[in-house]
Amino acid sequence: MAKIKLFQPIKIGELELKNRVVMAPMCMFEVKDKDGMVTDFHKVHYAARALGGVGLINLEATAVEPDGRISPFDLGLWNEEQAEKLKELIALIHQFGSKVGIQLGHAGRKAKGVKEPIAPSALRFSEDYEQPLEMSQSRIAGVIEEFQKAAQYAALADVDMIEIHAAHGYLLNQFLSPISNQRQDEYGGNLKKRYRILSEVVEAVRKVFSGPLWVRISADEYSQNGSTMTDFIQICKWLKEQGVDLIDVSSGGVTEQLPTHLYPGYQVPLAMAIKSGTDIPVAAVGLLNDPKLAEYILQSGQADLICLGRPLLSNPNWLQMAARILAANEEFQAYNNAYERGRTI
Ligand SMILES: Cc1cc2nc3c(=O)[nH]c(=O)nc-3n(C[C@H](O)[C@H](O)[C@H](O)COP(=O)(O)O)c2cc1C
Using a 6 Å cutoff on CB, does residue 310 contact ligand 1? Predict the structure, then answer.
């Protein structure tokens, strides 16, 4: 019988994972003093998922500068103290057996608690958000430098992977989309120009971090005025040329528009389209709680990794539940013999 793929090790670029389950980046809004620092909450929260056997934990969106936060309670990575605390968190997760990625991002016009958010164009996301300031080219250069510095700190903290957040309508996504980017200079207009800031961020990060590099994109904007799948495939080809190892394929967030039909695996066709159009490894995400569905996606080659958000919030030991359902008696070992007994109920 074919082995259960969910639990097979995999190598993506230089990143070796013990299985194909990734914890999706999820903001916890648990920073205490608005200082961007890791707290005990983060240690317990992420270490619990490491004990549960997750192959790679992708830490929540971590801002590269204070004004790039989705909320004042986000993690941040713009100073040494934050890097030291992050290092403690990563060491703890490593101790319990998971690899660690970090999602570096900037919220742009979707930043909350910021006097004057920045954006490619002075276009508000919605009435609930502040009017953003159109970024000057020197501000763009500044943000690219902040991504680079954050990547340097992440490397000091011993991350195994960096993911650049270019999805969900945050700053880099705002540049990619013709809906939010109406600039007339070298950073707006045709696709190549809208891609420019992301390419410069990737280049800047690559100069200081030679390890595994992923990018999360929103591959459907749920709008006729948005980027198309042809655009996303082109973007991913450019990312691949720049040495990006994997595309983490999500959707939405540039506008308030949601998909009309939400069903298990609803974003998998997007991942598959990127994979077949670009020949780059992809992670699928979104309503993949059912282990049989997750296994089918891997077996049928629609994606290389299964990224779980809410399933791991509701059950840190999701893998153990999946092993029972998939009868993966040989392929999955719980953290220790005592945990192994959890499978017997
Ligand atoms: C509480 C929460 C926080 C989230 N924060 C982030 C984030 O920091 N970065 C990101 O790219 N996506 C974020 N997401 C989206 C998840 O990564 C994931 O793509 C989404 O929840 C769909 O996957 P799921 O059905 O497995 O939850 C968040 C989702 C949740 C539920």
Answer: yes
